[in-house]
Amino acid sequence: MSSKPKIKDLLDESACEYNKTKKQACNAPRPGATTGGCAFEGAQISLFPYADAAHLVHGPITCLGSSWETRATKTTWPGRDLTRMGFTTDVSLNDVIFSGEEKLVKAIDYIMAHYAPTAVFVYSTCVTAMIGDDIDFICRQGAEKHGIPMVPVHAPGFVGSKNLGSRLGGEAALQHLVGTLEPETTTPFDINLIGEYNVTGDMWQYRHLLDKLGIRVLATLSGDGRIKDIRCAHRAKLNVIVCAKSLVSLTRKMHEQYGIPSISLSFYGKRDTSKGLLAIARALGDPGLVARTKKLVAYEEARLEERLKPYRDVFADKKAVLNTGGNKTWSIAAALQDLGLEVVATAVKKATGDDRARAREYLGEKGVLMMNPGVEQARLIDEKGAHLLLAGGRSLYTAIKKGIAFADVNQEKKKSYGGYDGLLNLAEDLKNALENPVFKLVARRAPWQK
Amino acid sequence: MAEVTRKRDKPLQVNPVKLSQPMGATLAFSGVDRCMPLMHGAQGCTSFTKVFFTRHFCEPIAIQTTAVTDALAVLDGGGYSIVESVKNICKKTSPSLIGLHTTGLPETRGDDLRGVASKADFPLVYVNTPDYEGGFESGWALTCKALIEQLVAPAATVNDNKLVLLPHVSLTPIEVERIKELIESFGFNVLALPDLSTSLDGHLGEKQTALSSGGISVEEIKALGNAGLVISVGESMRESAKVLLQKNAGMRHHHFSHLQGLEASDSLVELLLAETGFNGVTPKVERWRQRLQDAMLDSHFSLGQTRILVVGEPDQLAGTCRILHDAGGRVTLAVSSVDSPQLEKIWAKRVLVGDLEDAEAAADEYDLIVGNCHCKALAHRLRKGLVLRGFPNWEEVGNPLKNDLLYEGGAYFLYETANVAEEMRGKTV
Ligand code: SF4
Fold first, then answer.
1. What letter does residue A346 receive in the DSSP assignment?
2. What burial letters (b/e) apply to A428-446, b meaning 16+ CB within 10 Å?
């Protein structure tokens, strides 16, 4: 039987707020008017942080050649970090005509002989899905031969968006890894972190707090993850979805199959980090744990306040316009407010209904939810007298024209803004942006234009 | 000359240097003013490409996708998605040209690009660039050829003052500008096709628009047919020169496999002197030639004791290996992204069509690496010196302004490389 998931089922995800109201595929791509990555990219993102596994891309060079080493998914894995490596079958015309299966089998053997990973993910891509290479069969055979899990990932780019791909990646892990091993021990406070990829070390900003509380992260999907752990994930007491909508169907299925409840939260900014920790404690249902968490939260918040003091003056009376997408529309807004900035507007064009509601909640009645940020942001900067624009690269020119500071929130980030400590990183970056003379200087007219 | 290993006995690429044909095509179309590159395939290739170049050039990159999806992948022959794309693009912007190029998906399906393109009532140039064939360099070259074939009007007379420059994919914007300047100093009117020197040179313009700005204009391309002279740089550009010559029997063509180092720079100047009958160059050119000679002497001692690995596209390898060789550097290994007839002529002991895993396996053969930013991990692990060159370079800013060419760039390049070599030696002893 093919392990190909039913795409339609995933799109109709009942647990997804967005799809409840809108019976249409999330972000269905439109020819000539599309931005954003493909399903393959999404699948890779969701599984990539397993640094002890090889990620083998079965396709021509585009899929991997342009993308390896782009994501800074940090790991504590002591062996060679396989996420820093690119593996691809680089199929050629010959393979397209006569099938790339033989090459794939040999490629797996090669990886096993040279890198000894704890699992192999085999990603199908547009061309190899099209020519019908049977990656299910090859993975099954490879797993038998080499004695480790080999996971076929059916997320060729043409099935849809990055978001859908992440779901497909999650599905693959659920189907081929979860429940295939028993943990050595269990505790009453075992949780899985789902949808946290530890980009720039986000997860490490709060993981030590969970440790302090005695909450054990049994498995992750897949930040700083280990194959051994995700195979044991079915024994967790709680699934914690971090800042991601894309893996709700996975957690729903884990609830159905293994009875694991789930909660969804964000570790962005002070309030959300505190709320998140408390939510986990409450969901685990232990009064002692809740009390301990309250104490820890109070301590951490006080400590953060102390360290934020030098920034308070810089941010007092400062107004920001935020133009980003998804959960960032409110999570970054919340973080900015925690720093004492006033968020006068946030873009909700690319946000779900759920995200919009949360944005309204954080910004209050006065805050503007921009439906057409490209046009609105320039006007709002003037009207509200904003000092700072946080947006993707292209909006830089708007900021320069207005002579206000700019921070890129869509770029591949280098520092983590997660948790309490990450908020300090954000504060430092925004302070630097606000104090940087460059935004006024580059807009200066040339002597011969005056 | 080099001992070349072409045949790969590996069933896969591990840490590839190779980039795809569609990406090369995108970059070539970016050198045309107000062009919208339209990649035909599923959306991921386009998204990856956009991010890749945005990070490399630190510039917004215009590009769109035909966004082929599951249902379309089976039913459509390319017609619907391409026509829809053109419609949607024109709703938002008014490009001067749409640069339609394929990926593996529509090529596997066998889309009739020419048929669809012929029906589009919009200025459009199409090119087949499946990613399971060729690579970055050939994608650029095929696009250049398509631009000439489909746009340049045949002509019967020539304008002796007009010169067409056909640069290969690895020349940076500033390098193209420097070649143009040198030729212009001989009184020529130079047009580069494609021309990144004015589009991706890092200028701060009115970048609100979603289109490329700068670059050669469509009108200029159409009128290239009456140029008196054509200069191609890089083996990959020979085909483009050939099709351009077919547009006008009176055109003359000169080819350079690269323009790095003293001899190659001299030969370009010699040609220009012969063509114009001038008996000298500008004082500035003269000064820079002396400086390059001096740089060769100043750096020869250090480079002479350095064994070097060079990684990159074939045409780029040709120039880089040569200038290093001329200053005494021993290029013990060159790793080429793809095969090319140029490889035999490369000034290296050994040339390998391969990946960075192959380079790692040959670690005792070199002390210093000249290559893209994927080489950083390699250099770090193996404790080698590193000079960042080629695509991608996400580690450094200022890539459009890196100049290794002709007299001036050559001098800077040799100094930089020698300094890195010394620094590395200081660390390892
Ligand atoms: S769209 Fe298809 S071919 Fe392109 S990167 Fe995604 S999987 Fe690869």
1. E
2. ebbbebbeeeebeeeeeee
B270 Cβ neighbours under 8 A, 6+ residues apart: none
What share of chain A has pLDDT > 90, as a percent? 74
The verdict on a CB contact (< 8 Å) between B130 and A60 is yes
Beta carbons within 10 angstroms of residue B153's beta carbon: 12
| Planar angle of CA B376, A166, A258, nearest 5 degrees | 125
Facing A130 at nearest CB: one of B65, B88, B109: B109
- pLDDT greater than 60 at residue A181: yes
CA-based angle B406:B410:B415, to the nearest 5? 165
In a domain, B118, yes or no: yes
Residue B152 has what DSSP assignment?
Answer: P
The strands making up A368-370's β-sheet, listed across from edge to edge, are A368-370, A342-347, A319-322, A388-391, A405-408
Bridge pairing between strands B3-5 and B13-14: unpaired
Tell me if chain A has a CB within 8 Å of the CB of B364: no
B297 in the same domain as B310: yes
Tell whether B302 and B205 lie within a shared domain: no
Domain boundary among B253, B281, B309: B281
Q: Determine contact, residues A138/A122, Cβ cutoff 8 Å.
A: yes
**Using CA atoms, how far apart are residues B351 and B333, in angstroms rounded to an integer?**
6
Looking at the structure, tell me whether residues B340 and B245 fall in a common domain: no
ipTM value greater than 0.85: yes
Of A103, A162, A442, which is closest to B204 when you measure between CB atoms?
A442
Please report the residues numbered 196 through 215 in chain B whose beta carbons come closer than 8 angstroms to any beta carbon of chain A.
204, 206-208
* CA–CA separation, B168 and B194 (whole Å): 9
* Distance (Å, whole) CA B309 – CA B335: 8
DSSP state string for A182-247: --S---TTEEEEES---BTTGGGGTHHHHHHHT-EEEEEESTT--HHHHHTGGG-SEEEEES-STT
Q: How many domains are there within chain B?
A: 3
A69 contact B CB<8A: yes
Which candidate, B349, B320, B359, B317, places its Cα nearest to that of B336?
B317
Domains detected in chain A: 7-176 (3.40.50.1980), 190-300 (3.40.50.12380), 309-442 (3.40.50.12380)
Per-residue pLDDT of chain B (429 residues; tens, 9 = 90+): 789 998 878 999 999 999 999 999 999 999 999 999 999 999 999 999 999 999 999 888 999 999 998 777 667 777 888 998 999 999 888 999 999 999 999 999 888 888 888 888 889 999 999 999 999 999 999 999 999 999 999 999 999 999 999 999 999 999 999 999 999 999 999 999 999 999 988 777 665 567 878 899 999 999 999 999 999 999 999 999 999 999 999 999 999 999 999 999 999 999 999 999 999 999 999 999 999 999 999 999 999 999 999 999 999 999 999 999 999 999 999 999 999 988 999 999 999 999 999 999 999 999 999 999 999 999 999 999 999 999 999 999 999 999 999 999 999 999 999 999 999 887 765
Q: Contact, B303 vs B328, CB < 8 A?
A: yes
| Domain around B60 | 21-134
CB B45 within 8 A of CB B106: no
Minimal Cα–Cα distance from A125 to chain B, Å?
A: 9
Which residue from B minimizes the CA distance to A393?
B60
Residues A5 and A176 sit within 8 Å (Cβ to Cβ): no
Instruction: Name the region of A99 (left: φ>0; alpha: ψ -120 to 50; beta: rest).
Output: left
Domain boundary pick from B247, B281, B315: B281
CB atoms within 10 A of CB A77: 18
**CB contact at 8 A, B307 and B365:** yes
Q: Per residue in A300-325, pLDDT tens?
A: 999 999 999 999 999 999 999 999 88
The answer to whether B208 contacts A397, with C-beta atoms less than 8 Å apart, is yes
